[in-house]
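Tokens as discussed.
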């Protein structure tokens, strides 16, 4: 069956500060996986306040801040060790005045009320991790100011990868990711319209939600 298989809690894989540092070094060497995301970001050309969800060690956060000097980014991350590594990376690039790290959970409404609204709220490779996806997406949508954009970039479930009999982080993430119809149904049930879903080579997709 081609059903979605929920992934294990990602906290299990990052149990120490050393795990976070190792992940950060790997992330710096794999920026190509953000190629389509960054191209779409240029096309959107949104200025103002950005909010990144699941910012991890801040590798993408810093890349965006370097390329868009007119924006400020609030980076939300669940894991304290990732926040520690991320803040150090931000400081090393002298971007503390434009990037603020916040420890918080995408599914917790309290993580949103005090931070206000944003011109762009985005997440990359996080959607398939969320346990309560409907609640998470609803929270993200509420954080977007009127006229702003919610942009979710994630893996998509494809049959030829889904059936490869390998059990590692990547293939588990593919099996835990969503297909278009599942996303459309989720958004429809949340009463969210004005959306576009675009396939990205080779097995990602971009979900654009205009508010």
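Sequence:
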């Amino acid at each position: 069956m081609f059903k979605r298989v929920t992934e294990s809690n990602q906290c299990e894989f990052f149990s120490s500060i050393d795990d976070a540092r190792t992940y950060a070094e790997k992330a710096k060497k794999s920026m190509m996986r953000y190629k389509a995301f960054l191209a779409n970001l240029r096309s959107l050309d949104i200025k103002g306040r950005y909010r990144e969800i699941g910012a991890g060690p801040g590798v993408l956060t810093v890349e965006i801040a370097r390329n868009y000097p007119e924006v400020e980014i609030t980076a939300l991350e669940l894991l304290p060790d990732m926040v520690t590594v991320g803040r150090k990376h931000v400081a090393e690039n002298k971007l503390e005045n434009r990037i603020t790290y916040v420890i918080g959970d995408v599914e917790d409404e309290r993580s949103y009320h005090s931070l206000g609204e944003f011109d762009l709220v985005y997440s990359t490779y996080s959607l398939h991790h969320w346990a309560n996806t409907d609640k998470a997406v609803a929270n993200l949508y509420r954080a977007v100011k009127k006229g702003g954009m919610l942009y979710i970039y994630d893996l998509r479930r494809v049959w030829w990868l889904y059936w490869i009999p390998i059990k590692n982080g990547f293939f588990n993430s593919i099996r835990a990711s969503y297909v278009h119809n599942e996303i459309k149904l989720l958004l429809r049930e949340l009463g969210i319209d004005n959306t576009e879903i675009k396939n990205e080579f080779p097995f990602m997709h971009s979900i654009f939600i205009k508010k």
